[in-house]
Model the fold of this input.
Amino acid sequence: MNQPELMDGEAPQGGMVHPVLLGVVAIVGCTLLHLTGSFFLILDAQDPANRTLARVMIGVAQLLLMFAPTVMLARYAVGPVEQSLRLRPGPPFSYLAMGIAMVSLWPLLQTVLIAQELYLIPPDILASLKSAQENTESTYRLLLASDTSTGLLISIAIGALVPALSEEALYRGLGQGLFRQTLRPAGAIVLSGLLFAVLHFQPLAFLPLLGLGCFLGFVTERTGSIIPAITGHAMFNAVTIMGLSAVGEMPPELQEPPAITTELFLQSLPGAAVAMVILVLVILWFRKMQPAEPNTPV
Done:
C-alpha cells in the first residue's frame, strides 16, 4: 500500500513505517544484498579464463540484487516507479553541466585525498587504511582494466553505466525521496550522501565519496530527476575505468603513484582552485532552477 506523503518535519501516523527508517533500511539492505551476491563472482574473476564472463555476471548481479529490489520497493512502498524514483528527463543542458562538473571534480578530489593523507589521518592508521585501499584498487583493476577496445567498452558498461543506474535509483531516487518526506532538502541530501560514502567501504575515499554523493543529491533535488545524476555518476566511473586501463598499459616502474608530499600538495592547489571555481559556477547554475517538489507526478 502506498504511504501518504508527509510534509517536511511531520511525524508519521501510527502504523506507518517512518520514511527515514524505511529509506535507510532500503539502502543498506539493497547494497549489502548486492555486495554479498557479487562476492563469489569476484572470486571467480581471479581466473583469467572466466574474467569476461565474471564481469558480465557482476553487472547482471547488480541489476538483479540492487536495481530490481529498488524498483519493487519503490512500487509497493511509495508509489508509481516513475514518480517515486524521479525517472523524468532532466532539464535542457543539465547533462552538459554534469559533464563539466565531473571533469572539474577530479583535480579537486585529488587535492582532498593528498591533504587528508598529509594532515588529517595519523600515520599508524593511514598505513592500514592504505593497505585496504590498495587491495580494493587491485580488485577494481583486475575486474575493469582492459587493453582492448571491446574489453574497455564492456568494463564501462559493467563498471560505469550499471552502477550509475542502480546506485542513483537507490540512493538519490528511492532513499533521498523517502528522506524528503520528513527532512528538509539539505538533511535528505546529506543523509543519502553519507550512506553512499559509508557503504562503499573505502575509508580513504570517504570524503571524496561524501562530496560526490552530496553533489549528486543536490542536482537531483534541483532538477527533480535522477537522470542527470545517473549521467554524472556514469561519467565519473568511466573516467576511473579508463584511468585504470591506462595505468595498466604503462611500464611497471611508472605504475607506482607519486609519493604524497607537501610539494605535491602545493602543486595540486592551482588546479584545485580552478576546478573549484568551475564547480561553484555549475552549482550556481543549478541553484537558479526552481526545485521540484518531492514525489510530484511526472
